[in-house]
Amino acid sequence: MKTFEQRKLFTKSEYKITETKLYYNVTKFGDANEIDIPYENIDGDKVTFKSSNGFALFATLLLYVVGIMTHINSYSYGDNRDPYFSLVWFGLGTIMLIVYILSRKNFWKLKLNNNSYLYIHKNIPNEIKTNQFLEDLINSRNLYLRENYAQIDENLNYEHQLSNFRWLKSINAISKEEFDSMYDELKKTVKPDKTNIGFRK
User: Fold this and answer.
1) Residue 13 burial by CB count (10 A; 0-12/13-18/19+): exposed, middle or buried?
2) Is 73 inside a domain boundary?
3) Of 38-47, 93-102, 187-196, which range is least confident?
4) How many domains does the chain have?
């Protein structure tokens, strides 16, 4: 079993790669949520997903502008205005800037078969370890799926086995060359009109 952890602020995510599924546990402010994701449900496609707190950025710019205007106006009115009052606005703007920086997220979005996604931070703890985890996950998924769905059985339904091979090819668990080879072997071993015996997936 391979374990991978990510921590950011008050959130901890723990992933465990097992022989048959991915175990995912996320803890936030003491509340834990555990999810088991069978390898059959992991599509494997991943895309970049970035997000940030737009309101915090807008508030940062607004507070800095107010701070600048306050500073300018304090000199326009001479001693009637406190020139250091603008520092309050700059201070608030800096706080919002920190909030904005901490809220920025850079994920790998891993597609699941039920039209949902698993979000994994790209750079926590670092990009190399994250990419290695994803590679290990896909390799483990492929190994499991190949062992369970890429074997030709003369006692199983032809169309069902062909459907399995097409599915494996569509999620890149097997290559096109492997699919062609298995397809040829399936046609030699199992006839399309053979009686259906066994279980469906």
Assistant:
1) buried
2) yes
3) 187-196
4) 1
Q: Please check whether residue 138 is in contact with residue 171, taking contact to mean a CB–CB distance below 8 angstroms.
A: no
**Out of 150-154, 181-185, 195-199, which region has the weakest mean confidence (pLDDT)?**
195-199
**Which amino acid is it at 46?**
K
pLDDT single digits (tens) 66-90: 988 887 877 666 545 566 778 899 9
Cα–Cα distance between 102 and 131 in angstroms, integer? 22
Task: With respect to residue 39, please indicate whether it lies within any of the assigned structural domains.
Answer: no
Mean pLDDT over residues 20-32, rounded?
Answer: 94
In terms of Cβ atoms closer than 10 Å to its own Cβ (0-12, 13-18, 19+), residue 88 is middle
> Does residue 87 sit within a domain?
yes
Mean pLDDT of 56-63: 92
State the Cα–Cα distance between residues 51 and 112, nearest whole angstrom. 20
Q: In what order do the strands lie in the sheet with 2-8?
A: 2-8, 11-17, 21-28, 31-38
Q: Which domain holds residue 94?
A: 54-103
Residues 190, 156 contacting (CB under 8 angstroms): yes
Instruction: Decide if 67 is inside a domain.
Output: yes
